[in-house]
Design brief:
Layout lengths: L1 E6 L9 H9 L3 E5 L10 H5 L4 E5 L7 E5 L3 E6 L12 E7 L3 E8 L9 H22 L4 E6 L23 H11 L4 E2 H5 L8 E2 L11 E2 L2 E5 L1 H4 L2 E6 L15 E5 L2
Parallel strand pairs: 1-2, 7-8
Antiparallel strand pairs: 1-14, 2-4, 3-4, 5-6, 6-7, 8-12, 9-12, 10-11, 13-14
Helix pairs in contact: 3-4
The structure holds one DNA strand.
Amino acid sequence: MKIATFNINGIKARSIALPDWLDAAQPDVVLLQEIKSVDDGFPRALFEDRGYNVETHGQKGFNGVAILSKLPLEDVTRGLPGDDSDEQARWIEATVIGKSALRICGLYLPNGNPVPGPKYDYKLAWMDRLHARAQDLLAQEEPALMAGDYNIIPQPEDAARPDAWKDDALYRPQSRAAYRRILNLGFTDAFRARVQGPEHYSFWDYQAGAWNRNDGIRIDHFLLTPQAADLLQDAHIDAAIRGYEKPSDHVPVCISLDL
DNA sequence: ATGCCTCCCCGAGGGAGA
């Protein structure tokens, strides 16, 4: 089973590039972030015509997450537990029914800039809630994953110019510690389990020719429970499409599970 | 880089992104 996560930076702006990538890459399941659309505005037919089931959790203008799946989806839930007053659409879960069941969580973790400030406080509070959900997932002792745009640069090797990010919400020690606290519960970073070394990125700024200079950062991640990590066959980043026509500033990260 | 693009809101120019 091939699963991808892709921050598309607006479904309307990606109505060509996203279907083109789906047709070429043929993923079974895709977790989308930043659809920037309400549920009713999401072009479901574009994906249903390609054999995908579509589940969205959108809001007007910002954020928004979705799941595309060629396999049946069950028990879909929307919103990260832990704060009923949180109206931002950043979390969706479902169970994919393949040879056996896999719980998948798609997330768009808050950016958090500027630091300090209320947006950074929101990021850290959101990560506390993510930690709690992560603990519950692990307690199930079943194949499950949390994937999406974490807005976290885990290590210096995950940025072309780590010094440029030292005061940024994506790289502050407190941000990275909050991410490690989740990882250290027992999750596997699927990409780093398969690929080591620098110069593997999932985001390049639109500005200042970042793509052409390979001035990127790796901030889109797959975290696997031990039972899911046992099934891991492959992980890679589809970097090339960053250079295609009208790209997102992120590219897809893909894994294959023996499911 | 207190932001060089791009996206959204809409129908001008501001908020947000990372």
